[in-house]
Write a structure and sequence with these properties.
This protein has about 180 residues and is an alpha+beta fold. Helix content is about 55%, strand content about 15%. The chain has helices at about 1-10, 35-50, 55-60, 95-105, 110-135, 135-145, 150-155, 165-179; strands at about 15-20, 20-25, 25-30, 30-35, 50-55, 75, 85, 90-95. α5 packs antiparallel against α6, α5 crosses α7 and α6 (about 135-145) crosses α8. The protein starts with a helix and ends with a helix.
Length: about 180
Amino acid sequence: MSQVLQRLAKTGEVQYISHGLWQRPKLTRFGPVSASPEKVVAAIERRREVFIVPCGAKVLNEIGATAQVPMKYRFLSTKPIRTIKLGKMSIEFEYSSAFASVCTGLTRLPEAERRLVAGLWGAFVYAGQKDARLQATAFRRAFDTLSLSGQELLLSRLSGNLRWAETLLKGSAANEGES
């Protein structure tokens, strides 16, 4: 099999991405187009049995905490993964044992909610206490979209250096009770 892939790679029909991952670029009138970073990450998740979510400015943008558009493709992962080059673009992976620990108890949540809980945890880590407090409304709005079970799981994962985030999120329920 690998000899066939090597032969196809020499002719340019397929390209090596990472260990065990190959792609067949789509040919357009502008030239070959590589797979999107999201599709590559999804393939890595399936192949390597790892949980991966976007991190950094992308998550802050998704929850409405910033209008900043990320220049890099960065992801949090539950296992170490090397940076992947796709042409001129790079996909960076940030492994954290704390993130892996946070994700262990999230398996009972639906997939989309599991990703949001993990993404919010990563957003707190990325933003830090000062910036998160400035964008508290966006964090609370995202938190309020979670089910009660999802909210409880996220709050239970905000310990140690992230204990401040728990008080920021609990403020949303307290504020609503006063209204």
